[in-house]
C-alpha cells in the first residue's frame, strides 16, 4: 500500500475522470450512476483498476470491484484500500 494519504475528494475526482476517460459522457458520470448503465464492463473495470494503481500506487485487482454496482461503490473500494476516512 502507498504511504501517501489520499482524501476522499481526490479519489472521487480521480474515479470520475477515469470513467470519463473510458468514453462515458461527462454529464452521465455521477457517484450514483450504475456501472452497467454507463456501459462499463469487466474490461473497463480492469482498465480503471490499473489506472488507479498507476496514479495512487494502490494495489487493486478486478476482484476488488466484484461487488461494485455504482461509481460510488468503486470510490468506496479505493478509499478502503487507501486507508482513507
User: Might you state the CATH topology name?
Assistant: Non-ribosomal Peptide Synthetase Peptidyl Carrier Protein, Chain A
C-alpha Rg (nearest Å):
12 Å
Count structural domains: 1
Instruction: Outline the low-pLDDT stretches.
Output: none
The largest sheet, given as strand count, sense and whether it forms a barrel, is: none
Secondary-structure element series: HHH
Query: Structural class, from secondary structure content?
Result: mainly alpha
Would you summarize the structure shown here?
The chain is mainly α and 85 residues long. The protein has helices at 8-21, 42-56, 71-82. The model has no long low-confidence stretch (mean pLDDT 88).
Map the helices and strands.
Layout: H1 8-21, H2 42-56, H3 71-82
Structure description:
The chain is mainly α. It has a single domain (8-82), classed as ACP-like (Non-ribosomal Peptide Synthetase Peptidyl Carrier Protein, Chain A, Orthogonal Bundle), CATH 1.10.1200.10. 48% of the residues lie in helices and 0% in strands. The chain contains three helices and no strands. Helix 1 crosses helix 3.
Amino acid at each position: 500500500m502507498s504511504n501517501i494519504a489520499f482524501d476522499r475528494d481526490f479519489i472521487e475526482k480521480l474515479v470520475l475522470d477515469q470513467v470519463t476517460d473510458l468514453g462515458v459522457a461527462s454529464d452521465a458520470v455521477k457517484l450514483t450512476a450504475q456501472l452497467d448503465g454507463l456501459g462499463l464492463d469487466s474490461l473497463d473495470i480492469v482498465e480503471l483498476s490499473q489506472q488507479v494503481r498507476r496514479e495512487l500506487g494502490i494495489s487493486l485487482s478486478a476482484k476488488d470491484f466484484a461487488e461494485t454496482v455504482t461509481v460510488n461503490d468503486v470510490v468506496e473500494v479505493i478509499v478502503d484500500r487507501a486507508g482513507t476516512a
